[in-house]
Amino acid sequence: MVSSTSSGSMLPLQLIFQGKTTAVVPNHVEAKEGVRKGWDLTNLENHWSNQTTMKWFVEKVLDPWRVEKCKELGLDSSKQKMVWLIDCWKVHTSEEFGNWLKENHPLVHYLYVAANCTSKLQPADVVLQRPFKHGFRKQFEK
User: Fold this and answer.
1) Residue 101 in contact with residue 108, Cβ under 8 Å?
2) In a 10 Å sphere around its CB, with 0-12 CB exposed, 13-18 middle and 19+ buried, how is residue 22 labelled?
3) Predicted confidence (pLDDT) per residue in 57-91, tens digit
4) Dist CA 69 CA 24 (whole Å)
5) 8 A C-beta contact, residue 114 and residue 88
6) DSSP 8-state class, residue 27
7) Could you state, in order of their start, the residue ranges of all structural domains in the chain?
8) Which residues on neighbouring strands pair with residue 44, listed in sequence order?
9) Is the dihedral of CA 124, 125, 129, 135 positive or negative?
10) Do 31 and 74 touch, CB atoms closer than 8 A?
11) What residues are paired with 85 via a beta bridge?
12) pTM higher than 0.85, yes or no?
C-alpha cells in the first residue's frame, strides 16, 4: 500500500505478499532496513488488503507517522487530529472498519475520494502509481 502526505512525503510502505506462511515475506537486508524504517511486511493467502491488514496499516504505519509528525512539530499527539483521504475500497467503507477506527483511533478522521474518481483525485494513484505503471508499460512494449 502506497501512501503519501499532502506535502508529498512518502509514508512507510505496507507490502502484502501472497502466501499461507511468513516464508513468502522477504527477509533480506533491504527488507529488514524497510521494517526498521516503519514498513509493514506481511502475508495473506491472497495479496488483497482486508479488515486485518487495514487495521495493521493504521496501527503500524499511519498512527505512528501521526505521532512522530506531532513530535516533530511540537504538537500534543494525544489531542492532534489528522485527516486521512482514502478511496472507496469496500474495506475502507465498511461499517466494521469505520467503527474500529472511531473506537481505537478517534484522532484519525477519514474522507473518501468519490467513487470512480481515484484515477483523477487520489494522490497515491495520480502521483505515485500512474507514473510507475506508465513506465512499466513503456518498458514492456519496448
Assistant:
1) yes
2) exposed
3) 999 999 999 999 999 999 999 999 999 988 888 88
4) 32
5) yes
6) -
7) 14-141
8) 18
9) negative
10) no
11) 111
12) no
